[in-house]
Amino acid sequence: MTRKILPILIVSVWLAGCGTMRGGGYYQNDGPPKRSKVDLSTITDPVPRPEPRSDSGNDPYIVFGKTYYPLREAKDYRERGIASWYGKKFHGNRTSSGEPYDMYAMTAAHRTLPLPSYVRVRNLANGHAVIVRVNDRGPFLHNRIIDLSYAAALKLGIVSTGTGVVEVEALTVETNAAIPISTKEIDSDLRSSNPAKFPQLYMQVGAFRNWQNAASLRSRLSEARFGSVFIQSEVREDVRFYRVRVGPIASVADSDALIERALQYGLTDAHIVVE
């Protein structure tokens, strides 16, 4: 067995235990600890620092037939989407980076960011934000963009709901930086008392350069009663794209149901976008 195949097998085995979500948003048989021996108020955000890439978890890997290519660096990464979290079921298990998963640490799983890396995660519903250290791979189900530790999810206020609409932004530290980032400076930047207007969820089912192709798909979806279907026009690098979207969608649960229906309809590229 080659070294590059090993991460693929590890990820596949891990998913076999967490392939089903419960109604509350976390994985089946998972959840918060019944009784915590850790004072969660003492858990602080990690301070981003230069770290070497982990020996495992940074090679291309395959999950559910899809190949993922981890980024060489996290610089300029920013994305909005839906966050989930994982807890007691995986506490102590090996992460993709080789470190044990600690649900009381400020960590997270991401499909393609380098391991390890640091990101700021902001809950767009309440303005709460945290810094987490990405040391694991996932999530691979339900259009989630990041899987948070229990401690991080608790700080963001998404433990009870299981999910949250968030913005994830990579934080990089230059190895030759003269002034290190302090926890105090980071906290003052993140603890916003003025959360932004809550964004809208949409399901995007296609992006075309040709208007007729977009219009044809819109007609099909309207006939299939997918709801409010529209075409959004956008120019990027002097090229105009026509994006076919459905929405706005009222909740994360509704978006999950809509994605499932789209997949059954054969729309394999359907995914949730946040604006």
Description:
The chain is α+β, with helices and mostly antiparallel strands. The chain folds into two domains: 186 residues, RlpA-like domain (Barwin-like endoglucanases); 74 residues, Sporulation related repeat (Alpha-Beta Plaits), CATH 3.30.70.1070. Helix content is 19%, strand content 28%. It has a six-stranded mixed beta barrel. The longest helix has 13 residues. It starts with a helix and ends with a strand. The N terminus is likely disordered.
Give a brief outline of the structure.
The protein has helices at 5-16, 150-156, 183-190, 211-223, 252-264; strands spanning 61-63, 66-68, 78-86, 107-109, 117-123, 129-136, 144-149, 164-171, 201-208, 229-236, 239-249, 271-274.
Which key terms come to mind for this protein?
alpha+beta, 275 residues, Alpha-Beta Plaits, six-stranded mixed β-barrel, four-stranded antiparallel β-sheet, Barwin-like endoglucanases, globular, single chain, 2 domains, disordered N terminus
Q: In the CATH classification, which architecture of the largest domain applies?
A: Beta Barrel
Q: Biggest β-sheet, characterized?
A: 6 strands, mixed, barrel
Please provide the ordered H/E string of secondary-structure elements. HEEEEEEEHEHEHEEHE
Helical content stands at: 10-25%
Classify the secondary structure makeup into a structural class.
alpha+beta
Oligomer: single chain
CATH superfamily of the largest domain, by name, is RlpA-like domain
Spatial shape: globular
What is the topology, as strand order, of the major beta sheet? 3-7-4-6-5-8
The CATH topology of the largest domain turns out to be Barwin-like endoglucanases
Low-pLDDT residue intervals, each spanning 5 or more residues: 1-24, 175-196
Counted up, domains total: 2
Separation, N- and C-terminal Cα atoms: 44 Å
Number of helices: 5
* Extended strand count: 12
